Amino acid sequence: MVRALRTENLKAALNERRVLRGVSLELQKGEVLGLIGPNGAGKTTLVRAVAGLIPHEGDIFIDEEPVASLDRRERARRLSYLAQGAESRWPILAERLVALGRLPHLGPFMRPGAEDDAAVQRAMERADVMAFKDRPVTRLSGGERARVMLARALAVEAPVLLVDEPTASLDPYHQLQIMEVLRGFADEGRSVIAVLHDLSLASRFCDRLALLHEGHLAAFGVPGEVLCDANLEKIYRISARRQKGERGEIVLPWARL
Question: Which residue stretches, if any, does this entry annotate as coiled coil (predicted)?
C-alpha cells in the first residue's frame, strides 16, 4: 500500500513537560488508523503536532513530502483537522459554518463556486446535518454541533483527515453513523487518523491501531494484535470479552483489574 502520512521520532512538550517521546508511525492510503491509549498518553498532542498546531521535534511527511516544506494553504488542503470538542460560539448558520471548510481552496477575495457548493452538500449529507442547515449552530444540541463541525472538516475533502474523539457527546446511533462516515471516507481512497476511547468502535472500524502509553508507541498493528490481553492488562488495567465481527474481533472492555 501507499503511505499517505508518516511521522519519524516525533517529540513534543506541553508546559515544559515531555508528552511525546519519539513516536514513529505511518498511515496508509485508504486506511482508518485508530489512535488509542489511556488518558494522558499523548493522543491529542500527537494529532495536534501533525496538524501543525503545536511546536514539535521530528519529521512529518504527507505523500512523502516534508510537511515543513508546504505553505499553510497547501497544508490545509492536504490535511483536515477536527479538534476534540470543537464548536462555534457564533450564531452562524450550520451550512455557512460547513462552507468554511472550503477556505483552503479559495484565494484572496474568491467566492465559492459550484465545486465548493457540491463539496459542502456532500459533507452535510455524510454527517447527517442537512435537516438543520438553516439553523444557527448556537441553537443546536451538543451532538448536533459536533456533527456540523465534522461536516466542516469533511468539506475540505483533504486526502488526510485527523479527528480527535469524533464520537464524544453523541448517542449510540450517531456514534455508529460517524464511524461509518469515517470508514466510507477512507474506503474512497482517503485516509483517517481518529483518536478513540471506545475500544469496541476502534476494533470494529479501524484497519490498524496505534496504542500510546506515557508518550511512547506501545503497540502498532491490526486491532486483534494491539488489543491483546497482555496490552489491555498492562496499559489499560482491564480485562475484555471478545466477539467476532465482519472485520475481525470486536473487543468489549469488561472488568477493571
Answer: none
